[in-house]
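queue> pop job 88
queue> type: inverse folding (structure -> sequence)
queue> payload:
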């Protein structure tokens, strides 16, 4: 994964250098806010309240644009923050507590989108789609004060950091991949506004009695600028 991300950074750096030499290659920046969630499938014979509720996320990053006629190939590197209200297990002194609260997860994502551009007065409309890969950076679970499980108590400030790995002590796997779709408008001066939907396709759940599967989801609104 580190090798893939390093190669992605080198690709964008090369694009930035080439953009000074030809208009066929440009680069830009974008940032925005998201409605995000962890789409979680409960385990067998387990009833979970509020297993999947959306939260607010945000993202920022840089992209390159390889332009050929009306098509553009756009690789990017994005810092992405995902938030979701959900239920989590906490092991304390061999007792499993069920806590209601919110996960906040941070990822570096590398999407590569194929874009089709339609010229209109003042700029052009565009739409496209493509795959992405992601690598987890960190995460934290914060419990809801008033939603502890009946008959089970835990400290109000019992927040804990996410563990990433494939063993039974981890919360999530560190690798994520999926697809995204984008649509928006680019003005003649390079200013861009778009909507992006990310659909996680891999199960990032590492180990849990509560869930057999967890996948990421997000719907974003972004502003950007192409140089």
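queue> result:
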């Amino acid at each position: 994964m580190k090798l893939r991300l390093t190669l992605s950074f080198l690709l964008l750096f090369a694009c930035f250098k080439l953009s000074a030499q030809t208009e066929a290659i440009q680069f830009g920046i974008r940032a925005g806010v998201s409605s995000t969630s962890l789409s979680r499938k409960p385990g067998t014979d387990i009833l979970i309240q509020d297993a999947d509720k959306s939260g607010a996320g945000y993202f920022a990053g840089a992209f390159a644009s390889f332009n050929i006629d009306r098509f553009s190939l756009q690789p990017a590197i994005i810092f992405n923050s995902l938030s979701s209200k959900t239920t989590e297990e906490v092991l304390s002194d061999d007792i499993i507590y069920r806590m209601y609260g919110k996960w906040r997860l941070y990822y570096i994502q590398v999407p590569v989108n194929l874009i089709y551009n339609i010229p209109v007065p003042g700029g052009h409309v565009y739409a496209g789609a493509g795959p992405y890969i992601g690598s987890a950076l960190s995460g934290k679970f914060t419990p809801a004060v008033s939603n502890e499980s009946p008959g089970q108590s835990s400290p109000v400030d019992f927040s804990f950091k996410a563990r990433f790995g494939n063993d039974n002590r981890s919360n999530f796997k560190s690798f994520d991949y999926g697809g995204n779709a984008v649509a928006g408008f680019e003005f003649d001066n390079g200013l861009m506004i778009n909507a992006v939907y990310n659909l996680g396709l891999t199960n990032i759940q590492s180990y849990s009695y509560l869930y057999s599967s967890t996948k990421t989801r997000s719907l974003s609104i972004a502003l950007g600028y192409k140089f």
